Amino acid sequence: EDQKEDLGQEVSKKHPRETPNYFVAIPITDDQILDRIEDVQELIFTKEPDLLRALLPVQTMHLTIIVAHLGTDEEVKKAVLALKQSKAKVEAILQGKVLNMTFHGIGQFNNQVIYVKMSEEDQKVLSRIAEAVEECFIEMNLNISGSKDFKPHLTFLKLSKAPRLKRRGFRKICSDLYKEYEDSYFGTAVFSQIDLCAMRKKKQESGYYYCECSINVGSGGTEESKEQ
């Protein structure tokens, strides 16, 4: 509950009812990457047990493309349609090639969000893909005003997840907590899926977000699309 309050206060100043409640994401499910992230999380937890509540479960790992405020079932349907329509654009960008997403090193935003970085080279193509998806949402007149510039990052620790820590004076996460991994290679995942996820619906049994729709893209997506 704390977290919702925390987010609410930031947003309510502008549009009380427009807080993003959906997001479009690329799921990261590669075991090597997730294992490495768990290693870092364990290291941080060992050094600073208070940060346990700020760690994000690896089952939820994803790259966010856009966030959206979908206020009605109608808008959710439109968003599903927008995602489905983006498939052709995305595949045109890929041109049948496999897009590898290489994760290397750790970065941070304001020492409050800690994430695994993605290689610059792979980011370029992914940025074009993000733009294509965004265009489809804009064409449907959906509210994605909460979206920031696309900068692919795999968040695994977030101070805002544990607002109580802030009250106890935890304002920054010291890079000493993870310096052993600051320049580590985490692994490479093949880009094969884009999801439309709900922020506030109950998560799936796997621990991943509730998905309204998933599209499989590129040659990595040959297996049947997952049943929701």
From TrEMBL:
InterPro entries: AKAP7-like_phosphoesterase, AKAP7_isoform_gamma, Cyclic_Pdiesterase. Keywords: Kinase, Transferase. One of its GO terms (cellular component) is cytosol. It comes from the Eukaryota. Pfam families: AKAP7_NLS (PF10469). GO terms for biological process: regulation of protein kinase A signaling. The keyword Kinase applies. GO terms for molecular function: kinase activity; protein kinase A regulatory subunit binding. Residues 20-216 form the A-kinase anchor protein 7-like phosphoesterase domain. This is A-kinase anchor protein 7 isoform gamma. It comes from Cariama cristata (Red-legged seriema).
